[in-house]
């Protein structure tokens, strides 16, 4: 039986999940990543996975890596809280009932907060011979025999039965495949970083979810640990602040080497992921090019101006603990729905096709769901010896049905809560 070859462009969460899923099912897989090495740029901090992201990971990863992922994740109360700037509760709801999983099976609801760099290290394990760095895609060409050839900036060429664009919001694959696809500036700018919870007193108090204000623990209000994520909003069109606690069930730096087989993971202390966001046209918000040029202390000072004096003192105390060295800016984008296109030997997953506002925490979940869905359809085609293009057609139809309503819901919620366009 012919061994199908798949090229994946982009070594993010979705692309790496797909690589594991396809390799486990006998596909010849190569991942090409334009970054020169895994730590070439900030990858963010906390990422929340619910269903179907967790179901997608479970179906694609080796069982031992999935177990390690859960062991090194945090499991705060599976609730999302929205409060006003005085900390009055506006909404407080569970993260949601279990969505239909990639394989259609009903599962009890699960919700975890992962440290994104740790999860990416886990996903990279076992793929050393599969991921190629410093490989910037320039173009691809469909051949008469139905295969596709990718060309890279270093002069390298690679051919495959299928090329998958998992290369994010600025996807080169999407640009070439669907030039009509539009990714819009959502009109939001974020300053993102983390509040360390290191030190025995701080860590013990945080784990108890009931710290008292004394000494070094004075800036740890209990409410920040009551939900998997808390949004404090100044009102529609005004700045907002988000807090997501990450208190590891097992320290990654200890759990990875103790795992069988051993997986090298960086040591990471407990922290609260923290962001301050505002509309791009807020009078205190500079242009994004200027924002990108600011160092950590300047970003923290800007955030302090965005969060006014009339906000609850707890918010200011938390921001005072923000690690300036962890801060970086983000520009939020959102995709317009794309009408159906003709299926072929090139397809897309994740932000490359359905970028969305982070307000519903569904971007990574949906990208991983894509990976599981594509793995399933390609495997069924290979097993039945039918053309892969048939599997791509089924995947793209299904992906459009579940992904673009999530994009729309994220846009609506972003407009209501935080002034997204």
**Largest sheet, spatial ordering of strands:** 5-4-13-14-15-12-16
Q: How many angstroms does the end-to-end distance come to?
A: 51 Å
Order of helices and strands: EHEEHHEEEHEEEEEHEHEEHEHHHEEHHH
The unreliable regions are 97-106, 203-219
Rg over C-alpha atoms, rounded to the nearest angstrom:
22 Å
The proportion of residues forming helix, as a percent range, comes to: 25-40%
What is the total tally of β strands? Answer: 17
CATH superfamily of the largest domain: FAD/NAD(P)-binding domain
- CATH third-tier fold name of the largest domain: FAD/NAD(P)-binding domain
List the domain count as a whole number.
2
Please state roughly what percent of the residues sit in beta strands, choosing from under 5%, 5-15%, 15-25%, 25-35%, 35-45% or over 45%. Answer: 15-25%
CA-based shape: globular
CATH architecture descriptor text of the largest domain: 3-Layer(bba) Sandwich
Helix/strand class: alpha/beta
With helices defined by DSSP (H or I, 4 residues minimum), what is the helix count? 13
CATH class of the largest domain: Alpha Beta
Mean pLDDT: 91
Report the sheet with the most strands, covering strand number, pairing sense and barrel closure. 7 strands, mixed
